[in-house]
Amino acid sequence: MSKAARTPLPERVLLGPGPSTVDGRVLRAMSRPLIGHLDPEFLQIMDETQEMLRHVMGTENRMTFAIAGTGSAGMEASIVNLVEPGDRVVVVVAGVFGVRLAEQVRRNGADVVTVEGEWGAPVDPSAVAEAIEGGDTKVVAVVHAETSTGVLQPLDEIIAAARAHGALVVVDAVTSLGGHPVRLDEWDIDVCYSGTQKCLSCPPGLAPVSFNERAMARVKERSTPVRSWYLDVGLLDGYWGQARAYHHTAPISMAFALHEALSMIREEGLEPRHARHHRNHFALVAGLEAMGMRMQVENPDHRLWSLNAVRVPDGVDEAVVRGELLTRLGIEIGGGLGPLAGQIWRIGLMGASSTENNVVLVLGALEAALRRQECAVSPGAGVAAAIGAFAAN
Ligand SMILES: *Cc1c(COP(=O)(O)O)cnc(C)c1O
Fold first, then answer.
1. Quick check: 382 pLDDT over 70?
2. Ligand 1 pocket check for 332: Cβ under 6 Å
């Protein structure tokens, strides 16, 4: 083994699809000395975390808590509890996370009906309604913020169709929660899951989830046991609910981090936080368009504020640009996934990464990298347009 000490990791500006920047307050919270996970002081932290999660998710659901695992574990927890073998489940698919959702539903033995759409546009809600009505649909699963395409999927018609049919609605809010409004009770969503490392600006490792009473009743009525012991919401109710009985050891340092990150959200206020995400997204788009680039999502109303998918200009090698941003300037942005690989960049403005500084920085950095590729960009146009947008908003 080499005797040389490992060189320190470089600092990065995190403008990819997650993780986002984590504030020093959250990092310091993680370095607190451990206490036991059944210590009354820790139980108090769990209570407060649940209360703050209810606030961020717009719900009074008792079963609102954090799964020990990343966003995908939240997805898995939602599906494994609600779906029984043979159930008809409608899944909305127009991106990588819709595909993953359908795969999890399939692995639970369900009869999966996918409603597919073009990658870069929302799926037509009337097609989803038709699919729901096409049989005895038990569950409808949909991604609210599709991180692979930058699309915000409208939910109201889909939820109304599910309600009319007695189907439960599962919503993936991994990239919307903390950046866009997500209101479980007002919108009548049955189960919602998220992740910590996107707009909540916490390291990855926990998955906030919420189950309403209708969903909890469905779990109780199951004719087969939940196939996952670890993610069984009935058992987790024993730990997060009244009994506070041992189920698994909570990731204590991560719990400290989430508690601190949620406290910061409460201090900022939800509406100002959403407005900040909107404003910075708007300025970034103004800058990218002024540089002659085109957004992947045509309709501005369907664009995510937290994840900006922009088309790579013709003749530009997107990986070279992305690599230069990372190694020369320490800025991380994302590339495209699946059919969009090589065709788009994904610029995340999530949580603490959503700042005016970062908008100006990434536009300037992209300009420099594009000019090195001999791509014609009028000097300063992107930054000027963003500054203009900030001044006007
Ligand atoms: C990131 C993401 C996930 C998965 O979260 P992990 O933390 O990577 O497991 C699921 N859904 C969406 C929409 C995401 O953006």
1. yes
2. no
Task: Please tell me the residue having the least CA distance from ligand 1 atom 3.
Answer: 71
Helical H segments across the chain, by residue range? 24-30, 40-57, 71-82, 96-107, 125-133, 156-165, 184-187, 213-220, 233-240, 252-268, 270-290, 318-329, 356-372, 381-392
Q: State in Å: Cα 393 to ligand 1 middle.
A: 31
Mean pLDDT of 182-193: 98
From the CB of 109, is ligand 1 less than 6 Å away?
no
Closest CA to 138 of 198, 207, 75, 86: 86
Start and end residues for every CATH 3.90.1150.10 domain found in the chain: 270-392
Contacts of residue 192, defined as CB under 8 A and 6 or more positions apart, other chains included, come to 57, 78, 170, 171, 172, 173, 177, 182, 184, 209, 210
Task: List beta partners, residue 89.
Answer: 112, 139
CA distance 283 to 186: 30
How many angstroms separate the first and last alpha carbons of the chain?
56
Q: Give me the helix-helix angle, 270-290 and 252-268, nearest 10°.
A: 80
**Exposure of 305 in the CB half-sphere (CA atoms within 13 A):** 21
Q: What is the CATH number of domain 32-266?
A: 3.40.640.10
Q: What percent of the chain has pLDDT over 90?
A: 95
This model's pTM is above 0.85: yes
Please, which residues have CB within 8 angstroms of residue 187's CB and are 6 or more apart in sequence? 58, 155, 156, 159
Domain 270-392 is of which CATH architecture? Alpha-Beta Complex (3.90)
Q: Which atom of ligand 1 is nearest to the CA of 148?
A: 15
Evaluate: CB of 71 within 6 angstroms of ligand 1.
yes
Tell which atom from ligand 1 comes closest to the C-alpha of 73. 9
